[in-house]
């Protein structure tokens, strides 16, 4: 299960742009394989950052993660064609970079995902073994 879908991409990006980024054979239709590859790459990046604190893949997918996946997938689709300065491509790059910063903060524990359960933390602790007390409270009370 992917964190985002084709419909999620179209909700953020005009379909004409999506076709421009993913129509490799020039038939006027976005290539399903290219879309799927970009969505999978987004999932992999998200899982990479979140695996320190959460069991991945996330199920169900929090809404905020879906938005991050859309930004990342669109970036990977657009980057195949190259970015042009002073165009809407700059927005795609900023959204991608912003998404990575959010993922870094989540991975570092500075932000939490809105999940039903608390994030899993690695077990950390100290084990101490001591020998039996030589002097009991009763014996020490006699002094």
Entry summary:
This protein has helices at residues 6-12, 15-22, 32-50, 63-79, 89-108, 137-141.
Structure, explained:
This protein is mostly helical. Helix content is 53%, strand content 0%. The protein has one domain (6-141). The protein has helices at residues 6-12, 15-22, 32-50, 63-79, 89-108, 137-141. Helix 3 (32-50) crosses helix 4 and helix 4 crosses helix 5. The radius of gyration is 25 Å and the shape is elongated. The relative contact order is 0.14. Mean pLDDT is 86; it is low at 117-123.
Order of helices and strands: HHHHHH
Shape, per Cα inertia axes? elongated
- Strand element count: 0
Tell me about the biggest sheet?
none
In terms of structural class, how would the helical and strand content be classed? mainly alpha
How far apart are the first and last residues' alpha carbons, in Å? 71 Å
Quaternary status of these chains? single chain
Helix content: 40-55%
Number of helix segments? 6
Average residue-wise pLDDT? 86
**Strand content range:** under 5%
Secondary structure elements and pairings:
Blueprint: H1 6-12, H2 15-22, H3 32-50, H4 63-79, H5 89-108, H6 137-141
Sum up the structure in keywords.
mainly alpha; 6 helices
């Amino acid at each position: 299960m992917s964190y985002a879908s084709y419909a999620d991409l179209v909700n953020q990006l005009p379909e004409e742009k999506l076709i421009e980024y993913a129509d490799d054979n020039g038939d006027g239709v976005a290539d399903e394989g290219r879309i799927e590859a970009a969505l999978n790459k987004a999932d992999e990046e998200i899982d990479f950052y979140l695996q320190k604190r959460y069991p991945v893949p996330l199920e169900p997918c929090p809404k905020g993660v879906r938005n991050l996946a859309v930004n990342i997938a669109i970036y990977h689709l657009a980057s195949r064609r190259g970015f042009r300065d002073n165009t809407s491509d700059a927005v795609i790059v900023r959204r991608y970079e912003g998404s990575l910063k959010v993922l870094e903060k989540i991975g570092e524990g500075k932000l939490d995902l809105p999940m039903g359960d608390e994030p899993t933390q690695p077990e950390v602790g100290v084990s101490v073994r001591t020998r039996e007390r030589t002097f009991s409270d009763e014996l020490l009370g006699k002094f």
